[in-house]
Amino acid sequence: MAHTKAIGSTQLGRDSQPKYLGVKLHDGQMAKPGNIIIRQRGTKFLPGKGVRLGHDYTIYAAVAGKIKFTTKKKKLFNGRKRLVKVVNVI
């Protein structure tokens, strides 16, 4: 006997579910505690004042306030500096 059906079965068609990454609340919008601001993989954005970083690198609001995006220079371990994006809730 055949191990697979002759018609109607395929070994293709497996795909992962979408992760819906990206910025959820933008600069100037109001955030309540617990609101997700950014879903990301890795630290593309860094947490600032009034926000926390989840175990899957999700940035969420810890306090109520207005969202503010800024940039700052961060010193790396090898002595170089790089420009990073920081999210704050003020």
CATH topology term of the domain at 22-82: OB fold (Dihydrolipoamide Acetyltransferase, E2P)
CA-atom Rg in angstroms: 21 Å
Strand residue percentage: 35-45%
Name given to the CATH architecture of the domain at 22-82: Beta Barrel
Give the overall silhouette: elongated
Helices, by number, come to 0
Q: What is the rounded distance between the termini?
A: 69 Å
Please report the total strand number as a whole number: 8
Helix content: under 10%
Largest sheet: 4 strands, antiparallel
InterPro entries: Ribosomal_bL27, Ribosomal_bL27_CS
Protein name: Large ribosomal subunit protein bL27
GO molecular function: structural constituent of ribosome
Family: Belongs to the bacterial ribosomal protein bL27 family.
Structure description:
The chain has no helices and eight strands. It has strands spanning 22-23, 30-31, 36-39, 45-47, 51-53, 59-61, 65-75, 81-89. The strands form two sheets. It has a four-stranded antiparallel sheet, with no helix packed on it. A four-stranded mixed sheet has the order 2-7-8-4, with no helix packed on it. The chain has a domain at 22-82: OB fold (Dihydrolipoamide Acetyltransferase, E2P) (Beta Barrel). It is elongated. It is mostly beta strands.
